Amino acid sequence: MHFHWGGLDLESSGSEHTIDGIRYVAELHIVHYNSDKYSNFSEASDKADGLAVLAFFYEVRFKVSVNETLQRYKPYTGQFTEIQPMDISTMLPDDLSDFYRYRGSLTTPPCFETITWTIFDTPIMLSSNQIRVLETSVLDWENKTLRNDYRHTQPVNDRVVEASFQPVLFKGSCHLETIHTKLDKIEGILNNFEANLESRQAGSEVSSHPAFHFSEESLASYVKIQTLGSMGLSSFTLCMWLRTRDFQPRILLSYATRDSDNELVISVGLDWGLWIGGHFANVPLHSSPNEWVHLCVTWTSQSGAAEMWNNGLSGRVNYIQKGYVLKPGGTLLLGKDQDGIEGMLSDAFIGDITTVNIWDYILSPWEIRNLMECRYRWKRGNIVGWGKSSATLFGGVKLEEDNSCLG
Ligand SMILES: [Zn+2]
């Protein structure tokens, strides 16, 4: 049993087989020899009916499990270990009914043409963290990290590839819509993958967490955040670092439900703006463009007190929406509001946003100050946790090195 993967220069693909030209993240090979006829692998390896390989693709599941614990082994050249017996079927997809089969070769020298290949159509889902471990744990003969250990696809020649099911083929010569759907899907995967690079490094070097850069050239760009818990909040603390480019009113964050566009919205400009359940409050702002600002907003339904903290200092307390509870089940975006009017992008955010966290309780002034002074860089929200909540980038959001705490 062995694997093929990518990982070189963040290459997010390393399977040896491709389907319709698409290379998967990684591939598992379970190699068998014909023990009815041959006594061992090497005896079978050059016989026409000697070997069979079951191949499985891996795909990234863009949901980082909080409880995921990954054991990391870094075996060096010449080390051996004994692996406890394990049930391989638990590592495989449930659905093994759809597969491709062809007669082919070993993908490593001596490349004997003796393999009956069976490639299963249903991929195995791994988290991006697990893929990361696969891509970075194995060392080569020189004790350097082994990457891109896959053979490039070879010509089909006159081989027949059979399928146990009716594969979805491109009808006619060129079905543009299908191709576009596929391209969109690939773009989504790439964007997700980039966003997840950050979470793959959770717990490691903090300075490697990227910031989201929203440029003037792509006003339609935004980031969708997957929350860790319900947004049906009766109090919260929301903190982030941001850097604006001008004094125009722009949307930093918007949370909208089906029937409430402004369920929770924070804007920046000459003032901070805050909407809760459609009600608005604003607080004068003292900061200048092109400088990192640490913003925290606290609100509690009990008194309706909303407080905005600008670089660790509290502004005026506003009282809005006493007794209100935020509606759950909505969508949380950075960089754009959700009033549904396409093309109305005059309030789209331009600048940088990083370290966005939301807690379902109110942090103390001391904690907020520590966050601002970067002593609490590791502290993560339980509703949105920077590096824990998955983020999907749309419309050209760029990832940049986060230097909010260096200035
Ligand atoms: Zn292989």
UniProtKB/TrEMBL annotation:
UniProt catalytic activity: hydrogencarbonate + H(+) = CO2 + H2O
EC number: 4.2.1.1
UniProt domain Alpha-carbonic anhydrase: residue ranges: 1-165
Domain called Pentraxin (PTX): residue spans: 208-405
Cofactor: Zn(2+)
SMART domains: Carb_anhydrase (SM01057), PTX (SM00159)
GO cellular component: extracellular space
UniProtKB keywords: Disulfide bond, Glycoprotein, Lyase, Metal-binding, Secreted, Zinc
Taxonomy, superkingdom: Eukaryota
InterPro entries in the record: CA_dom, CA_dom_sf, Carbonic_anhydrase_a-class, Carbonic_anhydrase_a-class_CS, ConA-like_dom_sf, Pentaxin_CS, PTX_dom
Chief site of localization: secreted
UniProt KW RNA-binding keyword: no
Compartments, as annotated in UniProt: Secreted
Gene Ontology molecular functions: carbonate dehydratase activity; zinc ion binding
Function of the protein: Reversible hydration of carbon dioxide. Its role in saliva is unknown.
Family indicated by similarity: Belongs to the alpha-carbonic anhydrase family.
UniProt xrefs under PANTHER family: CARBONIC ANHYDRASE, CARBONIC ANHYDRASE 6
Protein name: Carbonic anhydrase
Source organism per UniProt: Scyliorhinus torazame (Cloudy catshark)
Classification of source organism: Eukaryota, Metazoa, Chordata, Craniata, Vertebrata
